[in-house]
Amino acid sequence: MIEGNYTRLLSQRLARATGVLLLDVPTSVSLYRYVRRCWFERERHGALAGGRDSVKWDMLHHILIATRANRARYRRMFEDITLPKALLASARAIDAFYRENNLRR
User: Is the CB of residue 78 less than 8 Å from the CB of residue 22?
Assistant: First the structure.
């Protein structure tokens, strides 16, 4: 699994990928999940042992400004990908994807 917005390395990453998920949720959902993760999820899966997330201005800027500005570009890139793919554009769509694929959070 690879995650993130590192588009400069996208071609190398796609060469090794077997599929692509584009999470294109509204900015409000991203912001809410980030704050919740930082302030309330102490035992988060994938977190470093003993590590603690904190709200950072750079990440708030990324969610509120950069991601919003890049959303159309990510959609265009997604359309050109020929691998199996799914566009998940809401929290409800993400939940449904988990259920349909027997995944757990």
Answer: yes
Tell whether 4 is covered by a domain.
no
**Residues 12, 2: Cα–Cα separation, whole Å:** 11
Q: Please give the mean pLDDT across all residues of the chain.
A: 85
Q: Is residue 77 part of a domain?
A: yes
Alpha carbon distance 29, 46 (integer Å): 20
Classify 20 as helix, strand or coil: strand
Residue type, position 105, single letter? R
- CA–CA dist 89, 26 (Å, integer): 7
Q: What is the pTM of this model?
A: 0.73
Distant-in-sequence, close-in-space partners of 46: CB < 8 Å, separation ≥ 6: none
Q: Which residue has the higher pLDDT, 8 or 77?
A: 77
Domain residues for 87?
A: 19-100
d(CA 71, CA 23): 10
How many folded domains does the chain comprise?
Answer: 1
